[in-house]
């Protein structure tokens, strides 16, 4: 039976905090006809038992292996019975009013394919929520402008809902059928970059991506990955995800040039430059993977 909203979150060794986060989301979703789907990536701690203990209106789907964030979300999309899919990190929480505002914005225009809230830290400090530009030459030009002291507008600042290039994947809402139709998150990504790619794909298909600053999501950044990666390893993962994005959306020659630009001095030291240079020459052309096949829906 169809429901209004499916909440999807991915866990991996999240046992320390998952119960509190799921209880908060249960409370926020109380006014909605909603289901909660937790997709676990083969955790070795008590994440699954803790999630099952607190969930009242949901299920825990357990993968045999850690298949990465995007593939795990896709499993949730396949099972989702909600008209809308709310995809969130397991270290993020959003309140009832913000969820309703996101749904109202998304349902107001069929050309909107994805909406996202303002993201803040636990202390209310604003965090990156969206970008005006997709990664590429324009972004690197703006990085150069900052280097020489010229003005740069990277993050949306409007208080009203407004169109953006891409939305940060910590909290996203989209029409479930559309997300399945476009293939969900691209399985070429393991972690980081899949949110940029999804927005780029929706843009190519003519769908708007809208930032809704009146909706607020509290995100404890890094908690979900700190149990697995230290800061250095997480940074390399982010760089690798961005490189995968370039391999999908740019020619090999452009990929090499952009990676070299990203590695030069102002982006941080010889070790980081070396990592960028390695990524510039690593891997094959992935432009044939721009549009993954559609995902199936839930079985009857």
Account of the protein in words:
By secondary structure, this protein is α/β, with parallel strands linked by helices. It folds into 2 domains: 3-227, Spore Coat Polysaccharide Biosynthesis Protein SpsA, Chain A; 231-286. It is built from 11 helices and 12 strands. It has helices spanning 18-28, 47-54, 69-79, 96-107, 137-147, 176-181, 194-204, 223-226, 231-249, 252-263, 269-281; strands at residues 3-11, 34-40, 58-62, 82-89, 92-94, 112-120, 126-127, 130-131, 162-163, 166-167, 171-175, 208-219. The strands form 3 sheets. A 5-stranded mixed sheet has the order 3-2-1-4-11, sandwiched between helices. Strands 5, 6, 7, 9 and 12 form a 5-stranded mixed sheet that branches. The radius of gyration is 19 Å and the shape is globular. The model has no long low-confidence stretch (mean pLDDT 87).
Précis, in short:
Helices cover 39% and strands 22% of the residues. It folds into two domains: 3-227, Alpha-Beta Complex (Spore Coat Polysaccharide Biosynthesis Protein SpsA, Chain A), CATH 3.90.550; 231-286. It has helices at residues 18-28, 47-54, 69-79, 96-107, 137-147, 176-181, 194-204, 223-226, 231-249, 252-263, 269-281; strands at 3-11, 34-40, 58-62, 82-89, 92-94, 112-120, 126-127, 130-131, 162-163, 166-167, 171-175, 208-219.
